[in-house]
Structure prediction request, 136 residues.
Amino acid sequence: MTKKIEMIIREEALDAVKDALHAIGIVGMNVVEVRGHGRQGGIELAWRGTSYRMDLIPKIQINVVLSDHNVERTIEAIIGAARTGKEGDGLIFVYPVDDVIRIRTGERGHDALMYAGDIDELRDKAGAKPPNGGKK
Prediction:
C-alpha cells in the first residue's frame, strides 16, 4: 500500500525538514508556498505604532508519496525537524494512494516510487525488512 504525506509547516522550517527527509532517504518531494491559518486565526502585527491582523499566514506545504512501512519513520523525521513547541508549527496529513504511475516508463505502484538511494534501498542495504515482509 502507498501513502501520501502532506505537511503544512513554518517557512523557516523548510530547510530543516528537507534535510531530515533526505537524511532518512526521502529523495522525491513537492514543495508549494501556501497561505492559511489554523486555530489561532492569524496573528497581530505592529508596525510604526499601528497594529493590524494578518489572517493568512505564509506557510510551506510539502508532499511526499511513499510505502506504508516508511510512514512512521517519515512522520518522526518531520516532527523532529519542524517542532518548536509554539502555535503554528503545522500539521501532517496522511492519505491513502490508490496507484502511482511513472509517466516516462509506465511503471506502476511501488516500482514507480523507487529511486536510487531512496528510503527503501537504504532499508534493504541495512538488512531491515518492512513490517509486512515487503508485501504490497
Q: What stands out?
A: The domain at 2-126 is CATH 3.30.70.120 (Alpha-Beta Plaits). The chain has four helices and six strands.
